Amino acid sequence: MCSTIKNVVASAAEAEIASIYLGCQRACPMQVLLAELGHPQPPDGTPVFTDNRTAKGILTSLCRQKLSKAFDMRYYWIKYRIKKKQFKLTWRPGVDNMADYFSKHQPPWYHKKMRYKYLQKNRKAHEDEDAHKDEDTPRKK
């Protein structure tokens, strides 16, 4: 999912909460569809990951926000859904957050170092296809 936050945010935590809100809002119809197709969601909520401890603390009520006037009322929606156990918000360090890679400017050496994480599945699929092609084609002697 790639979208622009239409609100002006005052902090990194608020920007992270806005992105969590947008992602979870898009996930709700998918959750209903999956449940109707016979794929129930986890009882403790669909996992959502963040690398911002403040955002996780605010949304799970582990910490109290001081400047609540700047906090958009729409973000209370996600706080309610987490409390209702529709979503389970989990903190992970940025290193483990694969989506974070695309939102940061990195030098070329870093891209080369990380490329395997994102292309490995595609490479394996192509290798498997090539192996099957070799089995189907007659070999020349």
Quick overview of this protein structure:
The protein is mainly α. Helices cover 49% and strands 7% of the residues.
Please specify the SSE layout and strand pairing.
Layout lengths: L11 H25 L9 E5 L2 H7 L16 H8 L3 E5 L16 H29 L5
Parallel strand pairs: 1-2
Helix pairs in contact: 1-2
Kindly describe this structure.
By secondary structure, the protein is mostly helical. The chain has one domain (12-136). Helices cover 49% and strands 7% of the residues. The chain is built from four helices and two strands, in the order αβααβα. It has a two-stranded parallel ribbon with strand order 1-2. The radius of gyration is 21 Å and the shape is globular.
Q: pLDDT below 50 for ≥5 consecutive residues: which ranges?
A: 133-137
How many discrete structural domains? 1
Biggest sheet, spatial arrangement of strands: 1-2
Percentage of residues in helical conformation: 40-55%
**Elements, N to C (H/E):** HEHHEH
- Tell me the β content: 5-15%
Helix-strand category: mainly alpha
Overall shape: it is globular
Count the DSSP helices.
Answer: 4
Give me the count of strands.
Answer: 2
Rg over CA atoms, rounded to whole Å, is: 21 Å
Span between termini: 51 Å
Largest sheet: 2 strands, parallel
What's the overall average pLDDT, rounded? 77
Which features would summarize this protein structure in a list?
single chain; 141 residues; mainly alpha; two-stranded parallel sheet; 4 helices; 2 strands
